[in-house]
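Q: How would the C-alpha cells look for this protein?
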Amino acid sequence: MAFEMETEVQQEHTQKVKRVYAEVAKVVVGQQYMVNRLMIGLFTNGHILLEGVPGLAKTLTISTVAQVLHLDFARIQFTPDLLPADLVGTMIYNQKEGKFEVKKGPIFANIILADEINRSPAKVQSALLEAMQEKQVTIGETSFSLDRPFLVMATQNPVENEGTYPLPEAQIDRFMMKVFVDYPSKQDELEIMRRISNMQFDFTVNQILTKEDIFAIRKEVNSVKISESLEKYIIELVSATRNPKEYKLDHEAQYIQYGASPRASINLNLASKAMAYLEGRDYVLPEDIKEIALDVLNHRIILNYEAEADNVRTADIIKVLLTKVPINK
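A: Here is the predicted structure in C-alpha cell form.
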C-alpha cells in the first residue's frame, strides 16, 4: 500500500512537471532545451550558466520559470560599478535606535538571475560564487543562511569583450552546466513576432509547484537507479578529458590543456538521473549521459592556443569522446 501511495505521489509530481513546461510555453516560444536544463538544475540543486547573444529570451525564461515555481525571485543586473554590498547587503546605522542594523541584499531569494554576470569585476563575482558554494553570506560579523532552494541562473553575452570580466575557470566550474542558447527556428520566430506585435498578449502564468513539491521531486530524482557500468562510464568519460592518449585520442590530446574536475563526474551522475526522471523513467540509460554530457563538460575542459588557432571547439572534443569512449558491461 505504501508503494502504491508513493507511486501515486510520483505520478502527481510528473503531471505537475509537465504543466510547468506548458505554463512556461504560454510566455516563451520554443527554447524547450533551455527550459529542460533549468528544470534539471532545479531538481538537482545545481546552478546554471546560460550563454547566448542578446534577445534569445534568457532573462524572460528564467523569470517565467520562477513565477511558475512560486519561488522568491530576484534579478540582479551586473554592471562594472556594482559592489559586493549591492549584492549581499550591508550594515546601516539606525539613528533612532542608535545602532547598526543589517540590510539584506537581493541575494536573499530562492532564484537569483545574475544577468550578464561577466559585466562585473572579480570581487562581485566572488561574492556571488561564495554564496553559491556555501549557501550563506556574511554581513559584518554575522553569517546568514540562504533560504532553500537557492539557485543561481546566470547569463552572459559571448559577443562583446569590451567592459567584461570573464569568469575564472575555478569559479565557472561551480556551475553545474553551461548551456549555449541558440537562435529560435523560423517557425518559432514567426510566432514570437506575432505575439509581441499583439499588444494584448498576456504574460501572466499560473503557479504550479511549491517548495514542498520541489524537495519531494529532488528525493525522487535521487532515487533514480544508475547501474554500476554506467557509473564507471561516467568516470571513464571524465578521465578521458584528463588523459586522452590513454583512450587513443591522440589528435584531441594536442588541444586539451586541462581536463574536467571531479565536479564533472558528480554532476554527470546527478544530471543524468534528472534527465531520466523528466523522461518518465526510474533508471538511467546511456543516452541520458550522452544527452547531458555537452552541458556538463563544455566549461570544464580547458583548451590551449593550438585549439584556438585550428578553430577547434570544446564541443568538438566532447563529441569525439562520446563516440570513442566505450561502455564496459
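DSSP finds 14 helices and eleven strands in the chain.

Residues 2-200 form a domain with the Rossmann fold fold (CATH 3.40.50.300).

Upvote if useful.
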